[in-house]
Amino acid sequence: MRLRRQYLTKNDCYQTDRTISVRGVMVHSTGADNPRVSRYVPGDGEMGRNTAGNHWDRPGLTKCVHAFVGGFADGEAGTVQTLPWEHRGWHAGGAANNTHIGFEICEDGLDDPVYFGKVYREAAELTAMLCRKFSLDPLADGVVICHAEGHERSVASNHGDVLHWFPKMGKSMDDFRADVASLIKDGQSPDPEEPEGGDEDVTYEQWKEFMDRYRRELSQRPAPEWGREELEQAKALGFTDGKRPQDLASRQEVASMILRAQE
Q: Which pTM was predicted?
């Protein structure tokens, strides 16, 4: 499996910052003849670059998945992780958003068995990796399903993917689940580890988004038990207002507290 990461930090779904307890994996396909992952992510030199600005890393969209499987710049298949795996995605249009990781396979014209074979294998390896990571049995009922099966179970909106494509290539979802299980059994599924090149894929703008998110998390944390008495004393003496006790302090704030302590 060729796994890279490019989080869609500007997408409204990412901004919600909600998480789930992962109970399954839902397989989608994009429904358009755009086999390159760069249609859906900003991309880079390896993935290919989106020059049209119609990728999903922008606000105002009502959809977001955890990953895209499709063609990279060299024409070979790969996976781009676009949300943290335990982030609540907007992919199912139903209750499966609360339980399942969702990824899209980039469709072509649905008539190329060579392309299908590449992305099918990549999707199976991705699903096997996720099953290993979250201790899921791909053969258990309702664990690995496609969007169409999710609709049949009343946990997803009325879409036909991937059952409009797989059977054309001689595959069913039962075949897919069996292939995932075989990868896990034979030890051929990739280890559930960090995507290769993850740090290099983070742009400066994304890094700032991550830092802002981290600062918000810190500001909401209460003071630890061991420091609460000292914090109250500092507030009483006017050294600090006591807000966001675990957030980072700027040099200006530190200088102000030192000078107030010397008064």
A: 0.76
Integer angstrom CA distances of residue 102 from 15, 113, 123? 17, 24, 11
Q: Which residues on neighbouring strands pair with residue 27, listed in sequence order? A: 103, 146
Q: Is 136 exposed, middle or buried (0-12, 13-18, 19+ CB in 10 A)?
A: buried
Query: Look-up: residue for tokens 């998110």?
Result: 213
- Helix or strand holding residue 234 (H, E): helix 228-236
CA nearest neighbour of 177 among 137, 138, 125: 138
Using CA atoms, how far apart are residues 34 and 46, in angstroms rounded to an integer? 17
- Give me the helices (H) in 76-192, please: 113-133, 147-152, 173-185
Spatial separation of the C-alpha atoms in residues 159 and 250, rounded to whole Å: 50
Is beta strand 100-105 parallel, antiparallel or unpaired with respect to 24-29? parallel
Q: In whole angstroms, what is the distance from residue 27 CA to residue 173 CA? A: 9
Burial 149-159 (b: 16+ CB within 10 A, else e): bbbeeebbeeb
Per-residue pLDDT of the chain (263 residues; tens, 9 = 90+): 999 999 999 999 999 989 999 999 999 999 999 999 999 999 999 999 999 999 999 999 999 999 999 999 999 999 999 999 999 999 999 999 999 999 999 999 999 999 999 999 999 999 999 999 999 999 999 999 999 999 999 999 999 999 999 999 999 999 999 999 999 998 877 776 656 544 445 666 667 777 877 787 777 788 777 778 888 888 888 888 888 888 888 888 888 878 887 77
